[in-house]
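Next comes the chain:
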Amino acid sequence: MALIKCPECGKEISDKALSCPNCGCPSSEFNAKSTSNCPYCKATLVPGDDYCESCGKRVTPYYSSQYTSNKEIDYSYTICPKCGFRNQVGKFVCSSCGHHFTFEDYHVIAPEKSDDFQGVYRRKIFGELEKVYCPRCHSSDCSHYQEQRIIPAKTKVRYSINLNPLHPFTLVNKKEKNVKDLRTVIENKFVCNRCGKIFS
């Protein structure tokens, strides 16, 4: 009995199993994969193995159905260089194989921007409209957001020597002058509905 990788979920299972206990993939799928050949050296491949035994090259593509779904991915991700799994941005350990990312192999891949834009626009200096995308997750699902900021009052204090003979125990006169009043400023920003990032 040997352990092979399920062609659907990638988990190790027995080659004698009738179906995968993790995803339920039938054994007919295992047998279909066993007759495949290496695209580089044409050698017979071991079922469920990602690398060819003869030439040592990777035969499982990064973008196989094992790692991606049919729907279009609209969020940023990182690809594990070991197994090709798409991880969320911010994870430095692969969720599939446990590989620890280094600075060299950690690359954020942004999704393709589709033509049917459903988000909000930003008006540029000369009146042109610019599409707004989240700087963290590159999602177009953003909304307008108003943030209220309170600017405190500013006062100027001046001290002078007391020359009034009627107040002999007062050495210094203090005078306060209000330079700026307390005011409230409303700033127009954007908020990402997917990750919650607030940006301007």
User: Anything to note?
Assistant: Confidence is low (pLDDT under 50) at residues 62-72. The CA atoms of residues 61 and 172 lie 82 Å apart. The chain is about 5% helix and 30% strand. The helical segments are 27-34.
